[in-house]
Each structure stands twice: as structure tokens, then as C-alpha cells.
Design a protein that fits this description.
It is a single chain. The protein is of the alpha/beta class and 236 residues long. It has helices spanning 2-22, 84-100, 166-188; strands spanning 27-29, 47-54, 62-66, 72-80, 105-107, 118-130, 133-145, 150-160. Strands 5-2-6-7-8 form a 5-stranded mixed beta sheet, covered by helices on one side. Strands 1-4-3 form a 3-stranded mixed beta sheet, with helices on one face. Helix 2 packs across helix 3.
Length: 236
């Protein structure tokens, strides 16, 4: 019995080690939002942030690693904790509100009745890094004022070095989004002092022209009146 039991215990130990190797815990990551200031002004600049468009390859749980040849591979030791797109939205919201010191920064779509001073249309086309590749963020924004006019169109390219670990890469990517929010806030501040929209005065309809005087009536023909004479008529 002893000779048979040892191989069985040895096999069970190997299977246990294999199971541990397969079921290694995977770390979950979120972007670091930094320490944005808490906005105090409830009547500050009104900003509609969004829509914020994120590249398709970023809309997944896998934490992608940029390789030296430019390809992307999913990290084996970590993934995003939830939606990366939502993390970016919330990070931008808090950072921009803090920089502008305004409680009136909202994500699109806005609630009914919200009249923004400016709307930000933002597109993030790249946000990734690799063990030996810096963190890179590529984005473009357009600022639309309250009259619907495009006031600025800018393309942004940012890079951040890191220590190479997965945690360091995620931290570097969070720093890039914070820098994007800071640059965006600088571009927004001059639009806080837009002149109010003056409604065009309602034109009153021109007064109705006086009716032309009625055509002069045709002259009246005087009535024939008997002519009296002093002559007398005698009858016999």
C-alpha cells in the first residue's frame, strides 16, 4: 500500500502546482486621476464635455502592451478594472472642473435646460505603452462656443516615460490623461468671457397704408328748376 500511495501523492502534488500556475491572480488597474482641486464655484464656466470618442482597440478589458515592432499584445499579469472609456471620462471631468474651478462641467449628453458656454468634442485615437515603449497619447479636440462656432481645433501628441512594470505603465497613462485635461482647460479659459447673445429685435409689421382717397365722384347734374317769369298767361 505504501508503494502505491507515494506515486499518487506525487501526482496530486504536480496537479496542484499546475493548478496554481494556471489560476494565478491577475491584477486589475484603473487610471490614476491625480489630486484634482475640488471646484467651489456653482456659477462658474458651463462646459459640455463630449462626446468623448475612444479608439476601438481601447474598448476592451485587456490591458494591451505595445511591442517594439508596433504590434499590440494583451498583458498576462493585468487587465482593466471595468471600462477604460468610463475611467477616461471621469478623469477628464474631475480634472477640467478642478482647473476651471467650476461645478458646471458635465459629460455629454447634457440634461435638458443646460446651456453650455462651450462644448468640447474630443477624440482619443491612441493610449498605450509597452515594457520598453513609452506611454503615448494621441488626441484631437474642437471647441464650439455658444453660437455654434468652432473656436479652436487642436491635435495633441503626448509621451511619458515609465519604469517598465505594468503598474508603472498604467500610472504613466493616467499622467498623460491628466496632462491632456490641463492643456484642454488652458484652451477653455479664454472662452469664459464670451459676450451674451443678443436676440435680434422682432420686426414690427409696417402699418397698413392708408387707403387711397376715393375717386372723386362724378359731378352731380343740377336738378332742373322751374323758371319763374313775370309774364302772365290769360285764358279767354
Amino acid at each position: 500500500m505504501t508503494a502505491l500511495r507515494l506515486p499518487i501523492l506525487w501526482l496530486a502534488g504536480l496537479l496542484g502546482l499546475a493548478g496554481c500556475a494556471v489560476n494565478q491572480p491577475v491584477s486589475l488597474y484603473q487610471l490614476d486621476s491625480g489630486n484634482p482641486a475640488q471646484p467651489a464655484q456653482s456659477t462658474g464656466m458651463a462646459v459640455l464635455l463630449g462626446p468623448v470618442l475612444i479608439a476601438d482597440y481601447l474598448q476592451r478589458e485587456a490591458l494591451l502592451q505595445r511591442q517594439p515592432d508596433g504590434s499590440l499584445q494583451a498583458a498576462t499579469d493585468g487587465r482593466w478594472a471595468g471600462s477604460l472609456s468610463s475611467d477616461i471620462d471621469q478623469l477628464l471631468l474631475r480634472q477640467v472642473a478642478g482647473h476651471l474651478d467650476s461645478q458646471r462641467v458635465v459629460l455629454a449628453p447634457a440634461t435638458q435646460g443646460f446651456a453650455p458656454d462651450v462644448q468640447v468634442l474630443l477624440s482619443i485615437t491612441r493610449l498605450d505603452s509597452g515594457k520598453n515603449q513609452p506611454a503615448v497619447l494621441d488626441a484631437q479636440w474642437r471647441l464650439i462656443d455658444r453660437r455654434g462656432k468652432v473656436r479652436e481645433n487642436r491635435i495633441v501628441h503626448l509621451q511619458e516615460q515609465h519604469a517598465g512594470t505594468t503598474a508603472a505603465q498604467v500610472q504613466a497613462q493616467g499622467v498623460l490623461v491628466q496632462r491632456l485635461a490641463e492643456q484642454l482647460s488652458v484652451a477653455l479659459k479664454p472662452l469664459a468671457n464670451q459676450p451674451p447673445i443678443v436676440e435680434a429685435p422682432v420686426r414690427k409689421s409696417a402699418p397698413a397704408q392708408a387707403k387711397p382717397a376715393e375717386a372723386e365722384k362724378s359731378p352731380k347734374i343740377p336738378m332742373a328748376l322751374p323758371i319763374r317769369t313775370d309774364m302772365e298767361v290769360f285764358r279767354f
